[in-house]
Structure formats: C-alpha cells, structure tokens
Amino acid sequence: MNFEFNDDQIFVRDVARSFLKANCPPEVVRRVLEGNEHYAADLWQQIVEQGWAATAIPEKYGGLGMSYLELVLVAEELGRVCAPVPFASSVYLATEAILLAGSEEQKSRWLPKFAEGEVIGTLAYAEKAGVTTADTLETKVENGKITGRKTTVADAEIAQVIIVAAKSDQGDGASLYIVSLEQDGVSYESLKTIDPSMNHANVIFNGASAELLGGEGEGWTLLEKILDRAAVLYAWEQLGGSETCLAMAKDHAMQRYAFGRPIGSFQAIKHKLANMYVKNTLARSNAYYGAWALNTDAEELPLAAATARVGSTQAYYFSSKESIQTHGGMGFTWEVDCQFYYRRAKVLAVAIGSERVWSDKLIKASDHIEA
Amino acid sequence: MNFDDTPNEAAFRKEARAWLEANVPSEADLAGLDEVGRAQFWQKRKSDGGWACITWPKQFGGRGASTLEQVIFDQEEAKLDTPYMGSYFSIGQGMAAPTIMTYGTEEMMARYLPKLASGEEIWCQLFSEPAAGSDLAALQTRAEKDGDDWIVNGQKVWTTVAQYASYAILVTRTDPNVPKHKGMTYFCVDMKSPGVEVRPIKQMSGGSSFNEVYLTNVRIPDSMRLGEIGQGWRVALTTLMNERASIGGGNVGANFDSVKALAERLEIDGKPAIEDTIVRQKLASWYVEEAGLKFTEMRTLSALSRGDEPGPESSIGKLVAGVKGQDMASFAIDLLEQQGIQWDPEQDEREDAVFVQNFMSLPGLRIAGGTDEIMLNIIAERVLGLPPEPRVDKNIPFSDVPTGV
Ligand SMILES: Cc1cc2nc3c(=O)[nH]c(=O)nc-3n(C[C@H](O)[C@H](O)[C@H](O)COP(=O)(O)OP(=O)(O)OC[C@H]3O[C@@H](n4cnc5c(N)ncnc54)[C@H](O)[C@@H]3O)c2cc1C
Ligand SMILES: Cc1cc2nc3c(=O)[nH]c(=O)nc-3n(C[C@H](O)[C@H](O)[C@H](O)COP(=O)(O)OP(=O)(O)OC[C@H]3O[C@@H](n4cnc5c(N)ncnc54)[C@H](O)[C@@H]3O)c2cc1C
Question: Is the four-CA dihedral A210, A215, A216, A220 of positive or negative sign?
Fold first, then answer.
C-alpha cells in the first residue's frame, strides 16, 4: 500500500509553496480585487516561467511530461493563496480538452502554446441561469461559423482561445469547437461578480470561425469527461483554499482575547475549527483518491472526481464562512483577507457545476462501480 | 501512488487468506453455541493457528507481526462470514493488554496475555462511574492499603461485557487529599473476587451489553497493581489511547450501499426514490464521508507500510462514523415512511431491520470511548494546538472539587 505522494512530488509542492509565498502574498490578490486588472499578469508570467502550465503536458507537445500527481499539488498551492491567475481555465479546462479530444494536429498546434503560457485558454458551455444541458444549447455552428452567447465565462477577456460546446443534430446533441477569441465575430459583455479578483464575461459569437474538436455529436460526452478530469484539479485548488481558512481562523483564535481568555479556548470556537479540520481531512483523502484516479485514468474516475469535488466544495464553503465568523466584526471588513476566500470558494463551487450537480453525478457514477 | 501491496504484503495477504478460507468455522462447528461461545470458538481457532493478536510477541500468544499485517489479516477476515466478535475481546486485547505490556511485570504478561489471545479469558474495563465519565479523573472508587493488599469500595458503571469477564482493569482513588490527577492508582482485578457484584443495565436498544459493577470490600493483592501508587492517571492514559485507536470508523449497517439499495427499491410519487434530488444529495454527502474515512485509513496504512507514525488524521473516524450512521439510519426510516418504525428487537429477520437496529444503538457509539464533544476537544487541543479551557478542578485537593451533588 502506497497511497501517498513520493518525495519528488512533495518537492514540487514545497517549491510551489515557497514560490507563491514570495510572489503571491495577499497584496497581489488585493491589487486585482481592488484594481482594474483582469488578473495578475506579472504573476502569471512568473508561473508559466516556472513551467507549471506545462506540468502534465507530454514532452512531445512541449510539456514537462510530469504526472497529474505533481499538477494536483500545484493546484493546491494556488488555492492556498487564492492566486488571481487563469490557471484553472487554461490548464484544467482548455489544456485538458485539447489533450483529451484533440487530433494530433490540434495537439501539436495548441499544447506547446499552452505549455509556455503563450496562449491562455478557457472553456464555456453554460448559456443561462440554471443547468445548461445538451438539449438546451442554443449556440450553433453552421459552415464553420459560430453564433450564440455563453454566460459568465471565467477568464474570457484574458484568454486567446476558447473551447465551446455548441448544438449538434447528431449523436449526443452537442459538439465541441475551438474558437479563437482574437477575431471578428467575438464580443464581450464584461461582468461584475462576487469575486473581482477573477475575470468573468459573457462571450457573444456572431459568425466567428470555429474548428471542430473531437467528433461531431460527441461534444457532450467529451465535455463530461473533460469536466471529470478538471473536477479533480478544482478539488485540490479548493482544498488549498479551505486549509488557509482553517489556518487563518486558528491564528486569530490563538491571538484574540475576550472575557480574559483567547477565544480559541471557548468550545464554540474549538468545535468550529475541529469541524473544519474534519471536513478538510475527509476532503483531502477524497482528493487523493481523485488524484490517483486521474493519474491512472481509472475506471472509477467519474466517481472519484465527483467525490473529491463534492467533498472539497463542502469543506471550502464551510471553512470560508466559519473563518469569517471566527474573526468577528473584523472578519466582515474589506480590510481583512477572509473575504478573498469566501468569494473564491463560491466562484470555484459553481465554476464547473454546483455541489448539487456533482452530487447527482456522484450517484450516477456509483451505479457503475462497486462502492 | 497506488493501492498495491508490496511483495511482502501480498505474500502475507495470500498466506492469511489461505488460512482463513481453510479455517472459517462451519455451522456444524458452532452448533449449540451462544453468541459469546461462537466468538470464543473462533478466537481459540485463530489462536491455535497462530493468527490471534498477531502483533504480539510469540511467547505471549501472538505472531510477532506488524500493525499493517494485522490490518491485512482483518481485511481478509472481513471478507468472510465469521462469528460476530462484539466487544468480547476488544477491551481485553485492545486496551488491557497494551497497558499490561507497558506497565506489567514479566510474570503478569506470561500469566494474562496468552489467555487473552486465546479468548479463554474475557476482560472488562472498570473506569467510568456515575460521577466520572468524560471527566474520568473525577472517579471516587476508593482503594485503601491493608497490609500487602488493597481494599476497594465503590461503584462502576457502563461496564461492557462485565457479565462474561474473568478480569478487569480498574482505576481507583488512593488519595483524595491531593489534586485529582495525582491521587489515583491502577489495578487488574479478578472479577470472581468476593465483593464484586455485576448488575446488567438495560440499554434503550433493549439489549444489556453493559452493566453496573459494585465493589464492596474487594481485596486486591498489591502484585496486581500497574504502575506506581498515585500514577494511575498516567497508566489510564495508555489504556485510553489504545481505546481511541480501537474504536475506529468501521462501517455500520446503515451505510451508502444499504441506503442506496433501499432508495432503489422504494418509490416516491411513483418513481424510484433514488431519482429524487434530495435523496441523491444526502446520499452523495454521506458517500463523501464514507469514502473520506476509507481513504483516510488508506493514508494511515500507507504511513504504517513505510514504517512511519500515522498522522493525526485517524482521530476523526469514530466522530464521523457515529453521526453519519445514526443519520443514515434515521433517513432510511423516513424513506420507509410509516412502515419504517416496525421493529421487534427480540427477533427481526427483515432486510430493513438493520436501520431500526442502528437507529436505536448508534446513540451509544457517539458516547462510548469519548463522546463526540470530547473528540472535538481533542482535535482542537492536540491536533490544532488551541489553548485548553481554564479549569476549576486542577490545583485543589480532589476532596474540594465541586461535584454538583
Ligand atoms: C455589520 C456590523 C455592524 C455593527 N454595528 C455596530 C454598532 O453600530 N455599534 C457597535 O458598538 N458595534 C457594532 N458592531 C460590532 C459587533 O457588536 C461586534 O462585532 C460583535 O459583538 C463581535 O465582537 P468582535 O467583532 O470583537 O468579535 P470577538 O468578540 O472577538 O469574537 C470573535 C469570535 O469569537 C467568538 N466568541 C467571543 N467570545 C466568545 C464566548 N464567550 N464564547 C464563545 N465564542 C465567543 C465570537 O462568537 C466570534 O466568533 C457591528 C458589527 C457588524 C458586523
Ligand atoms: C455503549 C457504551 C459502552 C461503554 N462501555 C464502557 C466500559 O466498558 N467501561 C467503562 O469504563 N465505560 C464505558 N462506557 C462509558 C463511557 O466511557 C462514558 O459514557 C463516556 O465517557 C461519557 O461519560 P458520561 O456517560 O458520564 O457522560 P458525561 O461525561 O456526563 O457527558 C454528558 C454530556 O456532557 C458532555 N461533556 C462532558 N464533558 C465535556 C466537556 N469537557 N466539554 C464538552 N462537553 C462535555 C458530553 O460530551 C456529553 O454530551 C460506555 C458507554 C457506552 C455508551
């Protein structure tokens, strides 16, 4: 039994942790949150120079050819500092989509650019409030030209390329397309959201060129697979954030005195923090399972991914709200960093489908696997 | 990262499985035996085959194997249909034995451990008292020196398997005039001694697995003492650490598989209940907990496999499993609607009986061996390092501590 990361993987994590400690302190998050930047472009540049975007891309496509076990640990560290960069959109979604569904030619064309950070990618399927499915898709492609409107797309105004799910009259009812965002026929509606440290926009396609990714009418099935893979990576990023919430709450609870004692000596606070620890521990163990399944492309991946995703979503929400609570009045201020995590927890929680959606997938996936 | 056995682990697993398959008791073997008899039969057979208490030294009835090998053996045993072991041996083997190994003499080890391993002698734990549960150090049972013996008077309560026990581990107060943690002394006691009286307590679930034990002028030779006079608390901590390790997160009957199967069988508004969103949501959350515990255990085992100490993550097992099992049982009853409450505790062969059984017995799991609240305190203080609460009972003589009576 060796259900643990090896020393080389731990080394990658430690390097990432100290790099981000030095280069992504809370001031960087705050700068983006308060300013007009869509993301911390300087930090992103440093991150791609570190090779993180290339981590799991095979060497023949210009990547580092490491495993997903390294990538999940990088994701955790990015989550820990609430990094304001388009890593999830570009690496977990766009890169994974091309890796999974791309032709040889598409992989050779895109992956080296993703690896080097020369191109930032994202992915969009949602079109409305509530759940978008293959049946409800309105975006369509005719003669290679795409029309439609995708809602609340993460990092849309940063990315140069987007993977889009559009309607198909074949197969599962959808096809995936690669669409350059640097062309006529693409426009944006900038959005304000609960997390201004990330960029979100509606993307409107009006006759832009679109290139099929994967088979016609296979888009929804592919999308589900891409999202399963991404879910594991999101889960690790969420876990990292949740761990920071516990650490912040704990530090505060040790220092803050009320009624002549540190508030951490009151059971109401102790039990709150112990419950954070319990949820984080369960989430971590499930994230290990997800990482293993992703890395070995196991048959259990859909179940492992949903389990990791639901566990981390629950843990992050709980820790981020209770961290504010532990901080008392100051937790509710703009000044204190608790807010970063509360915002980000919710943004990540709905990014690729809510807890409800993933709970549903979990049960569906459990039908096929002996628990 | 993988779930594979190392070659040594695989070889051990194969050997264990072969022995288990060849030795699982048949119904004929067990004919005419009651529950405790069946448990003792199986324990004896394991012991004869060299598979009892396998982490113990060979001379004390063990196999000299590693903790991980014990886990592998347990995993293989769990795959087969073997007699229910209840708490008949877990207290003696899991709690008394490690304490005797730490504090006992060679003679005590040679006398008691082999019979614990073979299941011939069952032990119980005389710790809790009416006024000392979570706060075990508040215990009042008195032991007073009389020549080479001690005379013990007091009342213990919630003593599991006392009615079957040959021996007990016992904590007493020997000096009420010093602060509470300093005046205790720890003994082993022969349950057949004059003055030991066991009275069953009926649990809300109907059974009587625990008891009250009255101790009236019970004479214990000083040679049965473990640790120094006045060091009883320290010795008790060894026992309690092993208790927390042994009451793990084990999966109870009301679990993901059984409740999901129920939801597939029942209907809500003419459709399988499993298609209902609320049912799916709840099941998914419980699956996250169940899988989370399972993979936490895998991480612990991986640490053992590498020869490392497991991290503190294993402390969450009982806490998570207790509430989860109780809530799942409760939800299963809800799914069954009006019929869900049917239960004949004397005999209930129905497939769904497990839910009412768990519903009625799991409140005990959340209390036994450290309540949920105490487990949360332990995580907060020992794992997270939060400050202890101010205490009113620490530096004053035990006799001056408020008791509320
Ligand atoms: C929106 C808002 C408006 C406000 N308006 C006003 C106002 O108009 N005028 C005014 O005077 N004040 C105002 N306050 C302040 C408010 O009353 C305090 O924030 C509140 O009493 C908590 O005190 P604190 O912030 O110092 O947190 P702390 O007292 O430091 O509490 C921190 C954490 O410790 C916990 N804690 C503290 N003591 C105990 C205990 N004994 N047992 C268990 N847990 C404990 C708390 O529950 C909290 O989770 C406002 C606060 C907010 C958020
Ligand atoms: C099924 C079962 C089997 C048992 N078997 C044995 C046995 O074999 N031998 C034995 O010695 N004992 C046994 N016990 C006793 C068990 O260890 C005690 O019941 C347990 O430690 C709780 O003590 P108590 O019942 O006195 O409750 P109390 O300690 O009075 O607790 C009452 C409530 O107060 C809470 N509480 C107490 N202190 C604190 C605190 N500091 N902070 C927050 N909350 C607190 C508790 O969590 C609980 O909710 C058994 C109990 C059960 C239920």
Answer: negative
- Which ipTM score applies to this complex? 0.96
Say yes or no: CB of residue B377 within 6 Å of ligand 2. yes
**What's the CA gap between B199 and B97, in Å, rounded?**
25
d(C-alpha B25, C-alpha A68), whole Å: 46
Contact at CB, B386 and A253, closer than 8 angstroms: yes
DSSP state of B33: -
Provide CB contacts within 8 A for B307, sequence distance 6+. Answer: none
B255 in any annotated domain: yes
CB A186 within 8 A of CB A162: no
Ligand showing the shortest atom-to-Cα distance for residue B375: 2
CB atoms B295 and A288 under 8 Å: yes
Superfamily the domain A220-366 falls into = Butyryl-CoA Dehydrogenase, subunit A, domain 3 (1.20.140.10)
**Weakest mean pLDDT among A4-13, B165-174, B295-304, B352-361:** B295-304
The pLDDT assigned to B248 comes to: 52
Question: Which alpha helices (H) appear in B119-185, and where do they start and end?
Answer: none
Query: What CATH code is carried by the domain that includes residue B353?
Result: 1.20.140.10
Contact B379 A254 (CB under 8 A): no
**Residues on chain A touching B383 (C-beta within 8 angstroms):** 274, 277
Q: Do residues B283 and B181 both lie within one domain?
A: no
Q: How far apart are CA B146 and CA B219, in angstroms?
A: 9
Tell me if A150 sits within 8 A of A202, measured CB to CB: yes
Return d(Cα B371, Cα B404) in angstroms, integer: 21
Please tell me the predicted confidence (pLDDT) of residue B348: 78
The closest-lying atom of ligand 1 relative to the alpha carbon of residue A269 is: 44
The ligand 2 atom at the shortest distance from the C-alpha of residue B373 is 47
Would residue B111 count as lying in a domain? no
Q: Does residue A99 surpass a pLDDT of 80?
A: yes
B316 close to A (CB below 8 A): yes
A178: tokens are: 């690669």
Cβ within 8 Å of residue A300, ≥6 positions away: A293, A369
Parse chain A into domains and list their residue ranges.
Answer: 7-116, 121-217, 220-366
pTM of the model: 0.96
